[in-house]
């Protein structure tokens, strides 16, 4: 094995690694042997110099992100094998060669043993998004390996890490193609068409993680008057229309999102008269919807990007959910979500409970939702379960 700089842990700090937790916090480090640069591969050893793992070094509270618990050579073959494993799992769960759904997550960071790396597949184009320097530095290796793994299914690889790689590093990432050129920006999800704004859009262009929850919403939509708040590209709205909603209103504060929503509705329906999109602030819009809707979706952005923002985030969730509970029609259904990693399932549930109690309405939990199988959660890294949702019946 190559000689990597060593990270020596404090006594007792090896326990989490022995249970395959993939992060090493800076406080767990006793000494660093060698001149380590951000993004370097490092060997993590115990206080007694026993080998524990290999990972990428980063300046910050998470000092090492582990991608391997065995002594192995880290080269292009190693990474290709990782990608092949991720691909095989997607094949197992039915996404490879699926004509109805050609948009899915191919690599889900820790969930696929690749902390700091996200790769989404959009109808022939893989979009990479890196959150660590170590992974970013390997981007071309990944692009080439993806071609080997996916063959003709892959037409292009686009890297979109400009806004996600750590700002403390000196690397100025610019978005662009690592391989080929994109041929289409239209994807299909359960037969519904979506236009994806790869260059400007949020995340890698689409909220792939809501696929199953959107599908579920479709089943509840027949003859309903639906309000989709924080709609972004109108994903939930398209499914509500498909499910036979009488009327669908989409709300987002971004003009660009509203434009995309209208395009996506038009892409799927000849008659779009049941749908209307509003560029408005959600908190304002929700002030005045008394008895207007039977079905409300609240899918806000991550209010808490980190633990320090937790309190304010919970206040935000409480406020929007209270407004929805207070005003939804009797017998209404609320789909409510949190995608903040810092908000636990318990935090979220208690907050929604509080909102229900403030409204004084009688509420039943019908479904407890999370992220789909192409966003797997490493069981040793429970932090990876970031998406939480509740479907509630309001009497
Ligand atoms: N439900 C969407 C994803 C939502 S992402 C889907 O299934 O694809 C969150 C969206 O909330 C973004 O589009 C963002 O523009 C919008 N947003 C953020 N703050 C807002 C606010 N205060 N009012 C309305 N929309 C807001």
Can you walk through the features of this model?
The structure is a single chain. The relative contact order is 0.09. This protein has helices at 15-18, 76-92, 133-137, 139-150, 211-220, 235-242, 255-268, 282-285, 310-327, 345-359, and strands spanning 5-9, 23-25, 29-33, 41-45, 51-57, 62-68, 103-108, 117-122, 125-130, 156-159, 176-179, 186-189, 192-195, 225-229, 247-252, 275-279, 295-298, 332-338, 363-369, 388-394. By secondary structure, it is α/β, with parallel strands linked by helices. The longest helix is centred in the C-terminal third of the chain and has 18 residues, at 310-327. The structure holds S-adenosyl-L-homocysteine. S-adenosyl-L-homocysteine is lined by residues 207, 210, 230-233, 235-236, 251-254, 257, 281-283, 299-301.
List keywords for this structure.
single chain, 395 residues, alpha/beta, Archaeosine Trna-guanine Transglycosylase, Chain: A, domain 4, Transcription Regulator spoIIAA, Rossmann fold, 3 domains, 7-stranded mixed beta sheet, 6-stranded mixed beta sheet, globular, binds S-adenosyl-L-homocysteine
Give me the secondary-structure topology.
Elements: E1 5-9, H1 15-18, E2 23-25, E3 29-33, E4 41-45, E5 51-57, E6 62-68, H2 76-92, E7 103-108, E8 117-122, E9 125-130, H3 133-137, H4 139-150, E10 156-159, E11 176-179, E12 186-189, E13 192-195, H5 211-220, E14 225-229, H6 235-242, E15 247-252, H7 255-268, E16 275-279, H8 282-285, E17 295-298, H9 310-327, E18 332-338, H10 345-359, E19 363-369, E20 388-394
